[in-house]
Task: inverse folding
């Protein structure tokens, strides 16, 4: 069937793709735009590894037809990472050993970004609640929770200076 | 990918036009959290699909003593709602943050068991579905909305456009029991609304709804009747819980067996009513 053209903002850049009807944002990001930090985990909305931010809010790109987000702003870890070095949340994950195999990490980092944007000083329960939909089979979650606490504390210290 | 046409109507009339033209063969989706996994797996192979994300149905407004929730308002939208704390409790226990940002209140009415926690809460709140068709709107009490497993009162040219929830004084709670604390399907979900007599202590009427204990969210008539005129004494609670366990129609799936679910219906109807038997306090978050 006829393809359609969809444009949206990807990490600060206007992009335009041609897709078959109802192609998922996940497929577009991975196979057409090279944003492979967006993982292809369960395609069921069950693992969170394909999490992206749409207008700053976390959503699962495997459940999202790209046509639904035409004109909206999509952020992936590729977009979060500065040209030089790492984003403070990424640094905090490194320092706290917030990953082992790394498969869940892009989703976790984006959730952390959205959480800290909403709530710059989240308590442990609020961090746990924010992460509840994203699976990590390596870390046991504690290092991830610590990483996000660290990122929050670092940002707060930076703001206080 | 088998989909030949994916429509994204920008208004209800446009959506109704598409339904009229393609009727039963048109798969309607909103948040995609139920339909997309089936499509991704190739279990569902729709040819024509209509997505409602741009149809302008995501508003939530309070008018007098009613709350009107657009069919595509998200579960995250419910979490911001102060009017009915019980709805917030129900939405907070569904899946994870990203799913709640996508899943819609209307879509929850079409979620097969053991899903449908919010639908169960809405049923206990005495909500009505707003169904829009070529002849205009009609309202269907949720108690009559479902007709069987994955079947409902909608005609093929009609669309669920909203849900109306009466803001009735009383006591209400929604308790979900799953295998984990979060992001988990229900073993059973129990939602209760109690209208109290003027003394504030005696139950006038009760609505008890169960999720994951039948082909769709169900009201438990005998369990409700067992509470009328009582002050939620332990014996009344026990009688109500036993009636719910006897009357429900649980099923076996990967989450729990029929045997276990039936026993948990008794336990969690009892717990929900026990919570509501405590004197109301502003901090309890269980006002209706």
Result:
């Amino acid at each position: 069937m006829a393809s359609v053209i969809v444009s949206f903002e990807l990490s600060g850049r206007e992009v335009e793709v041609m897709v078959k009807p109802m192609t998922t944002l996940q497929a577009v990001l991975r196979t057409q735009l090279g944003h492979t930090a967006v993982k292809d985990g369960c395609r069921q909305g069950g693992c969170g590894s394909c999490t992206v931010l749409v207008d700053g809010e976390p959503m699962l790109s495997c459940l999202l037809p790209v046509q639904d987000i035409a004109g909206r702003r999509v952020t992936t870890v590729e977009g979060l990472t500065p040209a030089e070095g790492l984003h403070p949340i990424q640094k905090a994950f490194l320092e706290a050993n917030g990953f082992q195999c790394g498969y869940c990490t892009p989703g976790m980092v984006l959730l952390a970004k959205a959480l800290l944007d909403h709530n710059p000083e989240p308590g442990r329960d609020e961090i746990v609640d924010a992460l509840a939909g994203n699976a990590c089979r390596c870390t046991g979650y504690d290092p991830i929770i610590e990483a996000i606490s660290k990122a929050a504390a670092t940002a707060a210290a930076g703001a206080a200076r | 990918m088998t989909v030949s046409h994916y429509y994204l109507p920008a208004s209800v009339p446009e959506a109704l036009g598409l339904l009229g033209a393609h009727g039963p063969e048109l798969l309607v989706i909103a948040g995609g959290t139920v339909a997309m996994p089936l499509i991704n797996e190739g279990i569902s192979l729709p040819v024509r699909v209509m997505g409602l994300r741009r149809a302008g149905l995501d508003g939530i407004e309070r008018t007098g003593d009613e709350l009107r929730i657009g069919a595509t308002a998200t579960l995250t939208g419910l979490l911001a709602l102060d009017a009915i704390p019980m709805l917030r409790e129900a939405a907070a226990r569904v899946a994870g943050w990203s799913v709640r940002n996508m899943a819609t209140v209307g879509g929850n009415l079409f979620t097969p068991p053991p899903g449908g926690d919010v639908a169960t809460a809405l049923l206990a709140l005495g909500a009505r579905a707003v169904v829009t068709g070529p002849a205009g709107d009609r309202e269907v009490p949720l108690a009559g909305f479902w007709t069987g497993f994955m079947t409902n009162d909608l005609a093929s040219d009609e669309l669920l456009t909203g849900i109306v929830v009466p803001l009735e004084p009383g006591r209400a709670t929604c308790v979900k029991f799953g295998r984990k604390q979060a992001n988990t399907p229900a073993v059973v979900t129990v939602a209760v609304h109690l209208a109290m007599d003027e003394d504030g202590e005696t139950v006038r009427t009760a609505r008890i709804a169960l999720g994951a204990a039948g082909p769709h969210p169900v009201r438990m008539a005998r369990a409700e009747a067992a509470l009328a005129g009582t002050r939620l004494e332990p014996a009344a609670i026990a009688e109500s819980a036993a009636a719910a366990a006897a009357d429900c129609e649980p099923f076996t799936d990967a989450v729990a067996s029929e045997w276990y679910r039936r026993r948990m219906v008794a336990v969690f109807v009892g717990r929900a009513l026990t919570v509501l038997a405590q004197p109301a306090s502003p901090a309890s978050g269980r006002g209706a």
